[in-house]
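Fold it.
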Amino acid sequence: MDTSRDLVETEFPVDFNRRVGLSFNNLRLLTRALTHRSYLNEHPEAIEDNERLEFLGDAILDFLVGSWLYHHMPEMAEGRLTSLRAALVRNDRLAVFADEIDLGDALRLGKGEAESGGRHRASVLGSAFEALIGALYIDGGLDKVQTFVEPMLEEAVEEILLDNKDRDAKSLLQEYTQANGMGTPSYSLVSVSGPDHQRTYEVNVIVNHEIFGIGQGQSKQAATKAAALDALTRLKIT
């Protein structure tokens, strides 16, 4: 038995476990949740990265958030419940949850990923949060996940509803422009930059031949949504 490896795999997450109050019984499971695939590429002695736990955590969050909304929003229509759940489990919101517990500081990243800002990248943080939820479920069951997640949901829902953040930015912008006789917005890809594995897209949203917003993202879809949100901000709708 490789006791030195076992020691590393169990000692690594102790501080994070204590600081966040997760009370993991299986610290090797927590270590796996905190291990990004870039670390595994550079450290083949590591047991496993967190991608399988991410898959499980995604499913657990979908269920828990849907259940929480159903019981806490008894008068809300199904369509709004669906959009609110989507807003709560999308990657950028999960990255906010991750920031609240300083999850980025606890991650095991490869050197290149860490140096390129991986500890603060929303895509990395959101995925790691899902992995953490998956690990917490295996370690302590659904009740343990609920105890951890539900206080976060209460605060996030209030913020989302206050600013209509569950509504799709493109739909909101189109509703506004059409209601005000401005026609339908169109989106134009301005540029694509960066290496193949880390593209940055820039998109303009145009209304009546005028640029109303500019957005950037790691995909054309993300940049389009960012452009719509920028337009809404300029119009003081959000």
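DSSP finds 13 helices and three strands in the chain.
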